[in-house]
Design goal:
This protein has about 140 residues and is an all-alpha fold. The protein is built from five helices and no strands. The two termini are about 30 Å apart.
């Protein structure tokens, strides 16, 4: 399992470098694409760390999942919600599915500030909980 995890991490990093090169080379530089690509790859790397924790827990069933990995994943979810709040508030949100269209309809009906405030509050709460889990409190 350790070999599989290392292989996945190397594969993720090998795929990230060309994508990062393509995003940076794009003129004008799109900050949204850069942040989205970096967030995706950080999430994938954290999931490989969660795979390590899962393997260790399978070997020793009473062992809990590491607080740092759990906190980092919760923090990533909070960061994603904060990014969504920014996209909704700035009018840059472009839906790409059924749920996205429902969110777009609610933005048109309620205005962008109410959904952005909800996403901001949830994102800040998840970031705080992730920080607390990271610190082990």
């Amino acid at each position: 399992m350790r070999l599989l995890r290392l292989f996945l991490q190397l594969l993720i990093l090998a795929l990230f470098l060309p994508i990062l090169f393509l995003v940076v080379r794009q003129q004008p530089l799109e900050f949204n694409a850069l942040v989205a690509a970096a967030g995706l790859f950080v999430l994938l790397l954290l999931l490989t760390l969660l795979l390590r924790e899962h393997t260790a827990q399978r070997r020793e069933p009473r062992r809990a999942i590491g607080a740092k990995v759990q906190g980092a994943l919760i923090g990533c979810a909070g960061g994603g919600l904060l990014w969504l709040a920014w996209l909704v508030a700035s009018g840059q949100y472009r839906p790409g599915g059924r749920r996205g269209l429902l969110l777009m309809q609610s933005i048109e009906l309620l205005g962008p500030w109410l959904p952005a405030t909800v996403f901001l509050a949830l994102g800040m709460q998840l970031l705080w909980q992730g920080y607390r889990a990271w610190r082990g409190r």
